[in-house]
Amino acid sequence: MTGIVDWAAGRARMVIAFIILSLLAGGFAYASLPKEGEPDIEIPAVIISLPFPGISAEDSEKLLIQTMETELADLDGLDTMSSTAAEGYANIVLEFDFGWDKTKIIADVRDRMNTAESKFPAGFEKYTITEFNFSEFPIIIVSLTGPVPERTLLQVAKNLQDRLEGLEPVLEASLAGQRDEMVEVTIDPLRLEAYNITAGELINVVVNNNQLIAAGEIETETGAFAVKIPASFETQQDIFSLPVKVDGDRIVRLGDLADIRLTFEDRAGTARFNGESTVAVQVVKRKGFNLIDTAALIKEEVAKEQAAWPEELQIAVDVNSSNDQSRVVESMVSQLEGSVLTAIALVMIVVLAALGTRSALLVGFAIPTSFLLCFAFLAVMGVTISNIVMFGLILAVGMLVDGAIVVVEYADRRIKEGSGPMAAYVEAAKRMFWPIVSSTATTLCAFLPMLFWPGVPGQFMGMLPVTLIFVLSASLVVALIYLPVMGGVAGRMSRGFGSASEALARTLPWLCASRLFQSQSGSPSWGQCRS
User: 206: which residues sit within 8 A by CB, 6+ positions away?
Assistant: First the structure.
């Protein structure tokens, strides 16, 4: 294994090229890696929600919960199952073992729920299956407020929603605080009685005319053509002019029997910004995209959309952002970057006080190089930069310099004994190869059990041992391959500069004497020399 040190020393130029390449690759990886506040972990659990308007909590437990529990109890990998019965609602939370096959399990859950539906009483609504996913929380909320009609504010919010959902990093931009538009039909009982029409007949006419009927297809010599009878309502006038009954020569239409107007649904919730009612656009980013860059892109698109509004609308509608996670993440990353730089400076000061300037510079070179190599490894593994990763880097600063200090100190002692710089650093790396490897291995062994930490805490903290393994492995490469080459090349350059300065010091007095003799004999002189 120590032969790799001789191999690297014999190809110093190639190793220096590798060093430059690794620094560039690490810098590019750090700039391009997604940055998150917390690690994006997957929780092996799903929530099944079943609405049933009008059902009591007791009947929900007896008729819905017990049926679902019976069908779902023997799912593969099921750990725990908890349920909630409430008025008009039934809910079950299924927790599975880690390492679950999410696609297969959700397919099994749907099959079991389809079987359970056949046993439910009439009146239930379609169930929904929701996964636990931290990445689906909004990263920024754009709020629209102002003294404008509700319909105008809603249209503006929908246009902004469409624009934001067209961005590649955006998974979803949902609206909050809005009321959807609806057509309200208020039936006049006196008119129904005058035309001898019952409310049931009127409702059947509306239902039968608001549907799309497929009528098969017609096959001809030129091909097959689909036939359909479209009867869905598209405008308010379609509803108003809907024929209900023929009374003599007159056609009784829906507008003759009821008042029809465009309005909004009843408010189910509200959203406020600074105490004012607002329509909020909640933006969720896709997994794997940089949170800071995504938030900046969203703000840019919001500004472009706002600039396209009429001037009166720009004055009336205030656009604000809240719950901006990019500020938190950017502050965290900058603070952790400052902590890493402070740790590097403190380590270099300690080494400078103990070993000298050249040793401090070489050890200081080992720290950022190990970090950048670690970022390159993280990019290959597809790991995002989070507070856990940055904390692991800070934790590793004091450990990754041990090998570099040992190699540099031993090489300095050999140089003082008369060895050449390259030979001294190669000998130091070979002599300390196995002690450094074993020391790093014992450190890694202390963190390896954290890789097998079970449950959600293990998923959350799993990036800490991964980061330490990567950065300490990178420190081995730096201490045993990069550092001997850099130390040998720097030593040769320093020795070359020293030899040149000594030769100049020996030659300079002779040149001064020659110039002084020429000056005394009347020859042109270019100056005085002082010894």
Answer: 185, 239, 242, 254
